What does this fold into?
Amino acid sequence: MSSEESKIVFKHQENLVKTFFSITDESIGMKHFRYTNDDYFSADESIKSCGETSPIVADGIYAQWVTTENSDPNKRILYLHGGGYAIGTIRGYLSLSSHIAKATGCSVLVIDYSLAPENKFPAAINDAKKAFKWMLENGPSGNTSCEKSFISGDSAGGGLAIGVTLALKDDNSDLPNAVIPLSPWAELDPVSESYKTNVELDPYISKDAIAAFKDLYINDELDIKNPYASPVYGNFDGFPPMLIHVGGREVLIDDSKKIAKKAKEAGCNVSIEVWDDMVHVFHGYAPFLPEANEALRAIGEFIADK
It folds into this structure.
């Protein structure tokens, strides 16, 4: 049985979709989408940052370190925000990233990676790769090597977290200790059965929206099956341990299941947790949503021994 707070979150997402489509002028549509998306987690006034932020330039990429009182400067998470590769900002993710920092005891680096349609695939992959390599040698306290590193992200950022780790692996680069995708968009083409089975349950994501953001992100139809863009086509041999979280209401739930299945078949230590009756990236509604707090604790427990 989901919490009473989850009903408020559900209604908030429904209202946000209405706001998204309240302006039909395509010439300013993307500006409106980007502005509106910063309110994605604003379901209650209690949802705000619980940490401190400091701006930084990570190998030419604007970023923010997000830390809390218990953050270890030598344990670092690269966090990649969601938004269909076309919207989403650091500002809109300061609350979620701070609660991740608090739950894990890590310092979190949130980056302003290149967005489509101005910067199409593989720009986001290239930015994430540069930022991760920079993070290995630079922390919130200065130029120091980290003891443990992780990559996490949600929605498109969750797919990006998997995709950039595949890219790092293929380059024989240093890999994170673990990867934590939240509600990942891991298959660009919206062909999974869950787009039908959960169509009435998901208040926010739709098949048409996924198709539209896919077209914004890629230059060439061949990129649809590029494993860095659609990690469901990736080779997971030698992939780090992975924890996948997804809400039971999501039309994207099959993306998580496909990734988990493929990674397990390759011998990857992967866990997938489906949170009953939860919506897309429900973690960001902490501390208001009890299920979000529980999920964040689970992430902290997962990386504790990695």
